User: Which sequence fits this backbone?
């Protein structure tokens, strides 16, 4: 999005609309490969989407009433902390033995996927089910309040609080972001912010990129993906704190 | 598009939800990609009007896909009498509907 406004000097609203539809393209294009590999945990996704969708709604309603600077700094610091946690576990290919909590057992959230790289089936359990939902609510609210794609919070929560395998976390997060983006995109569309001749080429490019990227990711080592992810978290954290202080 | 499916779980009476949703998302993205590509092609050939219409339909198809995905997941849960998860889908759909009706975009 900054690229669109800075490089092409287009109006902010046109850029925001195009980038929101691009999020749907990323989510949808990549999800096909992730679902085929069973990386996406659809039950976890539906459970957590309750948090993200209601959170996004709350955030959108509250936007304008809360101090944005403070929120940027708050979420930036939280993100930096989660980046630090991820750095500590950077060598872990898979989480250790996880004991599911009561809600997770009741909802049957555990999953199983075939890891192409390790060449074996990975069975996993999920814990921290309620804290996970609460974090999703706030990550949805952050998206609504600050206009940031909160996928990065979602991955961290599933990885560090719910102790899901990293690949399953990224795939499930990717699956979820499309839904919140879709409701935003419909609103932009109704407002006439979507300029087809601007959005079309961008979205098509992102869609094709997502299909290719997802096929690469399912073949990558978790520790390699983390190496891409940690700098991204740190960068986003610094950028958010900067936007708060500036 | 089909990957090796030798690593399936124990067969259930229905096709697994992941495969149904994967097909839905696949169809959605292929339709969108074709409409966008043809639309952009028309734009390059100087048919601005047609181009803009085709691209718009492509974008709408893409926007509708995730919402259809929640709806479809809900229907699958109903079919499997998994009422709790059907309810979760309903909550999500309601939140989306309220957001759209209020006209609050999640980025301002």
Assistant:
């Amino acid at each position: 999005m900054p690229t669109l406004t800075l490089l092409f000097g287009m109006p902010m609203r046109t850029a925001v609309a195009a980038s929101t539809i691009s999020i749907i393209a990323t989510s949808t294009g990549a999800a096909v490969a992730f679902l085929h590999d069973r990386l996406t945990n659809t039950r976890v996704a539906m459970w957590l989407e309750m948090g993200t969708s209601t959170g996004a709604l709350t955030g959108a309603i509250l936007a304008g009433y809360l101090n944005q600077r403070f929120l940027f700094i708050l979420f930036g610091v939280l993100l930096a902390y989660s980046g630090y946690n991820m750095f500590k576990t950077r060598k872990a290919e898979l989480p250790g033995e996880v004991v599911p909590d009561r809600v997770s057992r009741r909802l049957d959230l555990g999953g199983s996927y075939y890891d192409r790289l390790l060449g074996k089936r990975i069975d996993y359990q999920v814990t921290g089910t309620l804290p996970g939902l609460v974090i999703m609510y706030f990550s949805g609210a952050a998206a609504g309040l600050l206009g940031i794609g909160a996928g990065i919070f979602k991955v961290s929560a599933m990885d560090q609080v719910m102790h899901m395998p990293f690949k399953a976390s990224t795939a499930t997060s990717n699956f979820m972001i499309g839904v919140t983006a879709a409701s935003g995109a419909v609103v932009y569309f109704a407002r006439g912010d979507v300029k087809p001749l601007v959005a079309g080429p961008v979205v098509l490019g992102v869609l094709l990129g997502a299909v290719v990227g997802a096929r690469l990711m399912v073949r990558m080592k978790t520790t390699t993906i983390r190496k891409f992810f940690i700098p991204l978290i740190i960068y986003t954290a610094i950028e958010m704190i900067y936007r708060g202080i500036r | 598009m089909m990957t090796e499916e030798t690593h399936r779980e124990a067969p259930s009476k229905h096709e697994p939800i992941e495969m149904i949703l994967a097909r839905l998302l696949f169809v959605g993205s292929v339709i969108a990609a074709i409409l966008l590509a043809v639309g952009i092609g028309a734009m390059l050939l100087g048919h601005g009007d047609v181009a803009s219409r085709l691209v718009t339909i492509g974008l709408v198809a893409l926007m509708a896909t995730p919402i259809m995905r929640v709806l479809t997941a809900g229907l699958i849960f109903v079919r499997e009498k998994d009422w709790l998860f059907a309810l979760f889908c309903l909550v999500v759909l309601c939140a989306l509907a309220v957001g759209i009706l209020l006209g609050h975009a999640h980025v301002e």
